[in-house]
Amino acid sequence: KQEMETQGLEGFSSVTNEILKGRLVEGAEAQGTDTARLRDMQRWLNAESAFFYAMHWTLIRFHRPTLITCDHPVILWPATMGGREPGPADGTGLRDVFEARYPLTARLCLLMTWREGPDAPEMVSGNREMAFNINGFTRAEAELEWFSMPGTKPPMPSERSRLLPLSTAIYPGYDLRYVEQSPRRAHAIQLTLATARQPLVNQPTFPALQVGSGEQPSTHSDSAGRG
Asked: Which of 105, 111, 124, 214 has the least CB density, counted as fewest CB within 10 Å?
């Protein structure tokens, strides 16, 4: 604990350490040792990677740099509600995810859902309403800071705007019932739990859902790109 307070985490920048160090020290005190805390974090990082790999991926592309990002850029949309005001999805576990968004750049956002079949081969063209939606929840999810490309004016909704999931507008028929009955979602939860039980190694691999014949799990390295 004392070493973490004074030196931070080896291999991380000073900015990252400033953001994470206090939380890690608090967790280490709760669990007794720094090592136990860090091992637990790494194990669940691997498990969450398997979860998101198992989802269906769609890229939304904007013609101009309109998106923001923040220090917590992966946004989870709860499967227990429809439209909602921008705000953090507190208490949303992986079992309860309706969709997830990740603004990759000022022009690209990754949308993850439980649609069946291969990832979308074509990018979806983003519009101003989508930018309002993405930016509103990205800003609300920020713990300390949110960021935009210098010289741009990202569109922002009011804090009282009631917005809908992106997936329901892009994919007709994608709704709560679809998610609840999704085989892909059921498989992803199993893969996540299996990955969390794997022992930690220097170069971890984890099972990810291979869409295709029988949708059987396949093994991916943490450095492998999306196929």
From this structure: 214
* Tens-digit pLDDT profile for residues 30-56: 556 777 778 778 877 888 888 998 999
Q: How many C-alpha atoms does 11 have within 13 Å on its Cβ side?
A: 0
d(CA 108, CA 100): 14
Which residue in 123, 114, 122, 125 sits closest to 54, CA to CA? 114
Alpha helices in the chain (DSSP H): 2-7, 14-31, 34-53, 128-141, 166-170, 176-180, 183-196
Look up tokens 């992106």; give the residue. 166
Q: What is the phi/psi pair of residue 125, to 5°? A: -80, 120
* pTM exceeds 0.70 for this model: yes
Helix (H, G, I), strand (E, B) or coil at 140: helix
Q: What distances in angstroms separate CA 102 from CA 4, 134, 214, 215, one per listed residue?
A: 30, 9, 28, 25
